Automatic annotation (TrEMBL):
<dbReference type="GO" id="GO:0047372">
    <property type="term" value="F:monoacylglycerol lipase activity"/>
</dbReference>
<dbReference type="GO" id="GO:0005737">
    <property type="term" value="C:cytoplasm"/>
</dbReference>
<dbReference type="GO" id="GO:0010898">
    <property type="term" value="P:positive regulation of triglyceride catabolic process"/>
</dbReference>
<keyword id="KW-1003">Cell membrane</keyword>
<dbReference type="InterPro" id="IPR002921">
    <property type="entry name" value="Fungal_lipase-type"/>
</dbReference>
<dbReference type="GO" id="GO:0006640">
    <property type="term" value="P:monoacylglycerol biosynthetic process"/>
</dbReference>
<dbReference type="GO" id="GO:0046340">
    <property type="term" value="P:diacylglycerol catabolic process"/>
</dbReference>
<keyword id="KW-0597">Phosphoprotein</keyword>
<dbReference type="GO" id="GO:0005654">
    <property type="term" value="C:nucleoplasm"/>
</dbReference>
<dbReference type="GO" id="GO:1901696">
    <property type="term" value="P:cannabinoid biosynthetic process"/>
</dbReference>
<dbReference type="GO" id="GO:0050727">
    <property type="term" value="P:regulation of inflammatory response"/>
</dbReference>
<keyword id="KW-0442">Lipid degradation</keyword>
<dbReference type="GO" id="GO:0007405">
    <property type="term" value="P:neuroblast proliferation"/>
</dbReference>
<keyword id="KW-0472">Membrane</keyword>
<dbReference type="InterPro" id="IPR029058">
    <property type="entry name" value="AB_hydrolase_fold"/>
</dbReference>
<dbReference type="GO" id="GO:0004806">
    <property type="term" value="F:triacylglycerol lipase activity"/>
</dbReference>
<feature type="transmembrane region" description="Helical">
    <location>
        <begin position="92"/>
        <end position="114"/>
    </location>
</feature>
Length: 670
């Protein structure tokens, strides 16, 4: 039964109605309108409108009762014990049947309004609003179903009989291949629907296929809905905090660090602070307006404007390439960096899949030619991020196993070809031959900047790279090779530097484990989790382990250890206690170069940053081998938050903490 399989859980558990509160409010509003203004319906066409409102009230009342029943039933049992929710499929069928009269009645309402009924204006406007709201609810429901409905249904569920002998048969191999192909096709359809405004060139088609394969592989062995994931993350955060609180304080280094180490961190933090301005400038006017909401528009709109770019025999005072609103972008770049028009060699806001915007400028203060690559800010950039397969790099660096994240390496190669083949770097160094090359970026741009620096090092041996909140980019061989010229900066629990497919697979298994061992209904987990994230509290007052034999009473529809697709998954591993060792397609990735980690000192509240103090230290890559859960795991990635933290650390000066040369991890993970 498709509804009792994966699709039923996805549609019933999350989207029996995308917004039941809106229909309840609509019913109250329509009832109020009818009771207060029914005397004004004595007009031409008024009888039809009166009948429309009465039938609509009855229909909405039935829908509200059905949705309320769905909500009540869905609150029963636990995530892994669906037995008390056996009646859900019947309620879903009933709700599905009600869509037909709902759509018919909304269409009739639109037709009657189009006939220009001559009644009281307040009544007509109220009915127009009712019709519009009805269609918004219907369209949003249909779109949600298209996105989340899984047509494979129960076929994705675990198959207990699918043992190794069963999997070796030719018939099972064909079934496995068919299921994987179907799952990939479903995800590709969803992604194309969500990214319908993105172009359809070859790179985009490749990115669609790559992203669909990633998602189908990742979710092939589970039947999780978004609220299951939210509940699992909530439990993991509490469990993580509980383990950290129960552990002994980490070893304190009592001796003072050596002068070279201290001076090195001091100077690199100052460099990070300086070059972060260029990484932020590469985002153009959107980030500038976000950081300066009250004065930004006035500054870039009424301030300095860029004169037309001049091209003379193949050279350019500066180039403005691609995109709209280029002068707004240029104005924000001038204000962010503090440079002059003449200091810019090239500015590109050309934005496609695997092709990132970037700028090239002369930094006279640091005597450097700066290449700044923009981070994620469009659907095209997201598709680049999600092209996560492993890709071999042809580099002249003498390093074995040169491979990296496909999307990031493609983006770095595009910028490299523009810089070298179009003569942009040659032009910059013809103006300032004694300057050194510095490559910077944030987020996706940081990963591309790191690989770009590796590509350029054979031609520019003095190249330096400063990568802020860098994505996990390269294999360990490149991580070791890049320590001499790349510095990565990570803030707090920022999820992006830890976001490799290997770490995501490990996170999925931890989520499955913690929800399988939880004996509380999902709504209680989420309510308690919201309170814990907003106001804090003790992580130990919410049990997550089942008592004794109660564990045997559970069914486990979420855990696909025996499913066909699990055993065929490229990320499948029998190990559950350590990050998975993935095969060649999705190998472990690491932030490049030496890593500076900025961490909060003490507790400063769940979201407030006004009085936050940070410490900085050199960290080892092992500290980023697992995803950490926390309320700031996303906000720590924002460029404005990172810039404030950098300013705080550099201005304080004394808040530097040094770890042993071995760099072992002291971070508590679960």
């Amino acid at each position: 039964d498709v509804w009792e399989g994966g699709a039923g859980r996805q549609w019933g558990g999350e989207n029996g109605n995308p917004n039941p509160g809106s229909q309840r409010n609509s019913w109250i509003g329509i009832l109020t309108l009818f009771l207060m203004h029914r005397g004004k319906l004595d007009c031409a066409g008024g009888a039809l409108l009166s009948s429309y409102l009465i039938v609509l009230l009855v229909l909405l009342a039935v829908i509200i009762c059905t949705v309320s029943a769905i909500v009540c039933v869905s609150m029963k049992g636990t995530i892994c014990n669906p037995g008390p929710r056996k009646s859900m499929s019947k309620l879903l069928y009933l709700r599905l049947a009600l869509f037909l009269p709902e759509m018919v009645w909304a269409s009739l309402g639109a037709a009657w309004i189009a006939d220009d009924v001559q009644c009281d204006k307040t009544v007509v406007n109220g009915i127009i609003a009712t019709v519009i709201i009805s269609w918004i609810i219907i369209v949003s429901t249909v779109v949600t179903i298209i996105i989340v409905f899984d047509p494979l249904g129960g076929k994705m569920a675990p198959c207990p009989s699918a043992g190794p002998n069963h999997l070796d048969s030719r018939e099972s191999s064909q079934l496995l291949h068919g299921l994987k192909t179907a799952a990939t096709s479903v995800w590709e359809t969803r992604i194309k629907f969500l990214c319908c405004c993105v172009g359809k060139d070859d790179h985009t088609r490749v990115a669609f296929s790559s992203t669909a394969e990633l998602f189908s592989t990742y979710f092939s062995d589970t039947d999780l809905v978004p609220s299951d994931i939210a509940a699992g993350l909530t439990l993991l955060h509490q469990q993580q905090d509980s383990i950290r609180n129960s552990q002994e304080p980490g070893e304190v280094i009592s001796h003072s660090p050596g002068a070279p180490q201290e001076a090195d961190l001091d100077s690199e933090l100052a460099n990070c602070q300086h070059y972060m301005q260029f990484a932020a400038a590469a985002y153009g006017w959107p980030l500038y307006i976000y950081r300066n909401p009250f004065t930004g528009l006035c500054k870039i709109g009424g301030g300095r404007r860029a004169p037309p770019a001049r091209r003379v025999s193949g050279t350019t005072d500066y180039d403005l390439v691609g995109g709209e609103q280029l002068h707004c972008h240029f104005g924000s770049i001038l204000h962010t960096t503090g440079l002059q028009y003449r200091d810019f060699i090239h500015i590109s806001f050309h934005d496609k899949v695997y092709e990132l915007p970037f700028l090239v400028a002369l930094d006279h203060r640091k005597e450097s030619v700066v290449v700044a690559v923009r981070g994620t800010m469009s659907l095209q950039d997201i598709l680049t991020d999600l092209s996560a397969e492993n890709e071999t790099l042809n580099l002249e660096c003498g390093v074995q196993d040169c491979s990296a994240h496909k999307g990031i390496s493609q983006a770095a190669r595009y910028v490299y070809q523009r810089l070298v083949n179009d003569g942009i770097l040659s032009q910059a160094f013809s103006i300032a031959p004694e300057y050194r090359l510095v490559v910077v970026g944030h987020s996706l741009g940081a990963g591309a900047a790191a690989l770009l620096a590796i590509m350029l090092r054979s031609s520019y041996p003095q190249v330096r790279c400063y990568a802020r909140c860098v994505s996990s980019t390269s294999r360990k061989s490149l991580y070791e090779y890049s320590k001499n010229f790349i510095v990565s900066l990570v803030l707090g629990k920022d999820v992006i530097p830890r976001l490799s497919v290997t770490n995501l697979e490990d996170l999925k298994k931890r989520i499955l484990r913690v929800i399988a061992h939880c004996n509380k209904p999902k709504y209680q987990i989420l309510l308690h989790g919201c309170w814990y994230e907003l106001f804090g509290g003790s992580p130990d007052n919410f049990p997550t382990e089942l008592d004794g034999g109660a564990q045997a009473d559970l069914t486990q529809p979420l855990l696909g250890e025996q499913s066909l697709l699990t055993h065929g998954s490229p990320t499948y591993s029998f190990s559950s206690d350590s990050p998975l060792e993935s095969p060649t397609k999705y190998p472990p990735l690491y932030p490049p170069g030496r890593i500076i980690h900025l961490e909060e000192e003490g507790t400063s509240g769940r979201f407030c940053r006004s009085a936050v103090r940070y410490s900085a230290r050199w960290s080892h890559e092992s500290q980023f081998s697992r995803i950490l859960i926390g309320p700031k795991m996303l906000t720590d990635h924002m460029p404005d938050v990172l810039m404030k933290a950098l300013d705080s650390v550099v201005s304080d000066g004394a808040s530097y903490v040094f770890c042993p040369a071995g760099g072992g991890s002291n971070v508590d993970v679960v």
